Amino acid sequence: MKISRREMLRISAGTGAALLLNEVPAFTQQQALLMRSIPSSGEQIPAVGLGSARTFNVGPPSPEWVELSDVLELFHEMGGRFFDTSPSYGTSEKVAGQMVQEIGIQDDLFFATKISTGGGRQAGLDQQAGSHESWGRDTIDLNQVHNLRDVDIHLRTIREAKEEGRTRYVGVTTSFARQYQQMEQVLRTEELDFFQVNYSLGEREAAERLLPLAQDRGMAVIVNEPFNVGRLFGAVRGRELPDWAAEFDCQSWGQFFLKYILAHPAVTVVIPATSDPDHLVDNMGAGVGRLPDERTRRRMEELFDEL
């Protein structure tokens, strides 16, 4: 029988995310969310953010729209701030922008977006202008060159916007191991505030060279695809959370996967994407309490590799 993540977290967490949904103030006041500093500025941000690839790519107001709005409002209520999107994620950036303005939280969130086009400088400028318009913001907190597309051209555009006060931070992203060699060269030669990469228990290659390099170069690290596009949940389907997960305040497999990432010394923020309020509560719980030490992280890897 196929078990959904919602069912899994209800079983493994005991009290279940639905209880937490009704007790957000109690959850947020018990322990503060883990905060991390952006190396280039010292500004602190919560270590668990929210991604939007696929999840926020929806049509006009609908039942999906209502649930996504609930996710955003709950994210804000629980202390979440870092929201990552892109004009290349279908309607995600525009949908999220409309929602945050309707809720009235657009200026509270750390708005991270991207330039994602191979169409040259003007196409990048047009995307940048569209991002400002979508969120009703004069300033983008972080703009990133997405998957290294026209990286030299778009880094120049973003840096110019930073000099003009329309963007606060500059970054680059990848979600593909095939780009790691090129990304390493970019990290070595460019002055960047942020670096975003796919990293998880199921995809650990970025920890070999890229994460240490970004840390050495003083760059904040954003981790995308922390559940390996859902494959991690498939790998543990039908398995109980190990008893020793309680040693680092872990109550579900989702938190197990996220806490593994957050315990890496180079990681600044992880951005799981979800359209489910229950999952949002579970994800945010990964930013509360203890994290695994290095010995425990190795134990987590061994457990996963044996599945």
Notable traits:
307 residues; alpha/beta; TIM Barrel; seven-stranded parallel β-sheet; two-stranded antiparallel sheet; 13% strand; disordered N terminus
Describe this structure in words.
This protein is α/β, with parallel strands linked by helices and 307 residues long. It has one domain (5-10, 46-305): TIM Barrel, CATH 3.20.20.100. It is built from 13 helices and nine strands. Strands 3-4-5-6-7-8-9 form a seven-stranded parallel beta sheet. A two-stranded antiparallel sheet has the order 1-2. Helix 8 (180-189) links the parallel strand 6 (167-173) and strand 7. Helix 4 crosses helix 5, helix 4 runs parallel beside helix 12 (277-285) and helix 6 packs across helix 7 (151-163). Residues 1-23 and 25-29 have low confidence and may be disordered.
- Which residue ranges are poorly predicted, with pLDDT under 50 across at least 5 consecutive positions? 1-23, 25-29
Q: Strand order across the biggest sheet?
A: 3-4-5-6-7-8-9
Number of alpha- plus pi-helical segments: 13
What is the H/E string? HHHEEHEHEHEHEHEHEHHEHH
Number of domains: 1
Q: Note the main sheet.
A: 7 strands, parallel
Provide the gyration radius in Å.
19 Å
Write down the CATH class.
Answer: Alpha Beta
- CATH architecture descriptor text: Alpha-Beta Barrel
CATH names the topology as TIM Barrel
Number of strands: 9
What portion of the residues fall into strands of 2 or more residues? 5-15%
